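pls ignore typos typing on phone
calcium ion + seq
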Amino acid sequence: MIAFFQPKLLAGRRVLITAGPTFEPIDPVRGITNHSSGKMGFALARAAQEAGAQVTLVAGPVHMPTPRGVARLDVQTARQMHAAVLPLAPQHDVFIATAAVADWRPDTTADQKIKKQGDSRVPTLALTENPDILAAVAALPQRPYCVGFAAESEQLLQHASEKRLRKNIPLIVGNLGPATFGRDDNALLLVDEQGHHDIPHADKLTLARALVREIAGRIGQPHT
Ligand code: CTP
Ligand code: CA
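k done
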């Protein structure tokens, strides 16, 4: 019912969102991942849909129901997420990167389960850097309005500001962890060209709705 009374700030807009962790396989039974819950991305998908947007959600491995009216694509690895997002990005007005993309993947994935050697030797894991999905979208000639997330453990404003410039994006949303990671509530720091301000501590759906209002205010009305 509440959604019914929300102003349709994103009517006619297409919003693409990444959410959750990625999973980088080592062998058929093991892999590298992280504790991202995907909650913020799913809350944003719901809030953007409520605001009238057509929403595409590209999700890493998370166990969460798809918000009503949202088109969802499931992926495992960073490269799969990159391959799913890049062709979709030019068809969207806004890209919100909430995914905690694994920064590195194993150089090679073993076809069969790696077995213990028996003489206490341990395998060595060589890693390769994954593509930066947000930076790649921001570098597209036909780029959507790009919003990044920065989860930091210290010096939030400084790290978030540097990341915004490094990735060449107009808006970055910072949050301090790890205490808040995976929880239902959080506080956000918005950093753009003009400066920075907080969205005070609230549950993730309230934060998502506030962030949708901030984004809608920045992109203005669609051209009809
Ligand atoms: N991101 C991405 N692809 C990656 C890494 C990050 O799209 N391979 C996006 C995240 O979804 C987030 C933003 O970039 O919106 C910042 O992610 P973060 O991990 O904080 O930044 P990194 O550039 O990876 O730097 P670091 O992890 O060293 O702090
Ligand atoms: Ca990272």
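The longest helix spans residues 204-219. The radius of gyration is 18 Å. more later
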